[in-house]
């Protein structure tokens, strides 16, 4: 039985589950998921631009490989450094599903006459530097704030009114 190290978010578990299922159906290998908490999961009160460094979402999972607690690791490709640490190899990249992003907002924030269909001066949350830059170019009137957490946490921040809109991967 192979052990697949993964983060514990719903998204990470789903992605890792897909890899487990592929190993079973395509290679006849049995595997189980092993949740590993990373620094990126624990430190959520700071913007990624301030804390993200080598291995922020991967170091603890890699350590599970080195320690022999895990045989395989599943990561989001955006979290991997360009050069892998010694002893770590990227041996497969799963087929990418939908590369789109989604803008989520409350009905009262919508203004169809404006770019991005958002009323003037609203607060929009995202974690990606690229998305922040795109928003600032298209809508300099919007307040762009860092948005951290898993999908459930991000949706709750929208519902609670901390943000008027959020952008997440689709």
Please provide a brief summary of the model.
This protein is an alpha/beta fold and 170 residues long. The protein has two domains: 2-79, D-Maltodextrin-Binding Protein, domain 2 (3-Layer(aba) Sandwich); 101-169, D-Maltodextrin-Binding Protein, domain 2 (3-Layer(aba) Sandwich).
Characteristics:
170 residues; 2 domains; alpha/beta; 6 helices; four-stranded mixed sheet; D-Maltodextrin-Binding Protein, domain 2
Structure description:
By secondary structure, the protein is α/β, with parallel strands linked by helices. It has two domains: about 1-80, Periplasmic binding protein-like II (D-Maltodextrin-Binding Protein, domain 2, 3-Layer(aba) Sandwich); about 100-170, 3-Layer(aba) Sandwich (D-Maltodextrin-Binding Protein, domain 2), CATH 3.40.190. The protein is about 30% helix and about 20% strand. It contains six helices and seven strands, in the order βαβαααβββαβαβ. The strands form two sheets. A four-stranded mixed beta sheet has the order 4-7-5-6, sandwiched between helices. The mean pLDDT is about 90.
Question: How much is the radius of gyration in Å?
Answer: 18 Å
- Under CATH, the topology of the largest domain can be stated as D-Maltodextrin-Binding Protein, domain 2
Instruction: List the strand order in the largest sheet.
Output: 4-7-5-6
Question: Uncertain regions: pLDDT < 50 for 5+ in a row?
Answer: none
Coarse morphology: elongated
What is the count of β-strands?
Answer: 7
User: Averaged pLDDT, please?
Assistant: 89
CATH superfamily of the largest domain: Periplasmic binding protein-like II
Strand content: 15-25%
Let me know the largest β-sheet.
Answer: 4 strands, mixed
């Amino acid at each position: 039985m192979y052990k697949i190290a993964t983060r514990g978010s719903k998204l990470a578990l789903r992605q890792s589950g897909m890899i487990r299922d592929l190993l079973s159906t395509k290679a006849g290998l049995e595997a189980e998921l092993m949740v590993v908490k990373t620094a990126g999961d624990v430190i959520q009160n700071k913007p990624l631009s301030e804390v993200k460094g080598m291995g922020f979402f991967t170091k603890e999972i890699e350590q599970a490989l080195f320690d022999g607690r895990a045989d395989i690791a599943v990561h989001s490709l955006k979290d991997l450094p360009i050069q892998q640490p010694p002893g770590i190899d990227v041996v497969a990249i799963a087929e990418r599903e939908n590369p789109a992003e989604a803008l989520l907002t409350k009905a009262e924030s919508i203004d169809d006459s404006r770019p991005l269909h958002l009323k003037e001066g609203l607060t929009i949350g995202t974690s990606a530097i690229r998305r922040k830059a795109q928003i600032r170019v298209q809508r300099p009137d919007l307040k762009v704030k860092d948005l951290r957490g898993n999908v459930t946490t991000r949706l709750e921040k929208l519902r609670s009114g901390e943000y008027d809109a959020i952008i997440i991967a689709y």
